[in-house]
Amino acid sequence: MNKTERYYQEYMSHRHVSRRGLFRAFVTASRNVAPTASSFPPWPLPPGASSATQFLTACTRCGQCADACPMGVIIQREDGYPQLAIEFASCDGCGQCIEACTTDVLQHQAHFDTRLRPSFSTQCTHASRGCRQCATACPVQACAFTESALPVVNNERCNGCGECMIQCDRQAITLAQC
User: Fold this and answer.
1) Domain presence at residue 122
2) Whole-model pTM?
3) Which of 36, 39, 97, 175 has the highest CB neighbour count under 10 A?
4) Which helix (H) or strand (E) holds 57?
């Protein structure tokens, strides 16, 4: 994934970047995330995408959804298809990508959902206490903690925005398609 100067300019103009987020971006910029082989397609689709088969058939790969995204989280893959890339910014569900889509493969949703869900690794818990940053940052309060201080997600509440992953300074959260 190649981030251009335009991406960072758009990101900075629409979002406050914390020192933690900026440092995390520099540290993880060279990390390549390999797609999983079990999902079809193996990359996250933009919000409002129809079924994967319909999307891949009808998408013209014009790139208008990526151009319209103010957060810069929709990028064009090498094969031209759009991909939801929540690495340095979360998706706020503004719907501008849906408005820009001329083929109607992106449709308005009754409830915003990227169909991504967080998964917590064992790096998440500190020996004496957890940081709880994911629960604090979650705009829909989908992240919570068990009595043993292990993080859990309420899949019905979660909209897959990725804010929990962005705020995690331990890189203990990954997003996977549900």
Assistant:
1) yes
2) 0.73
3) 97
4) helix 52-58
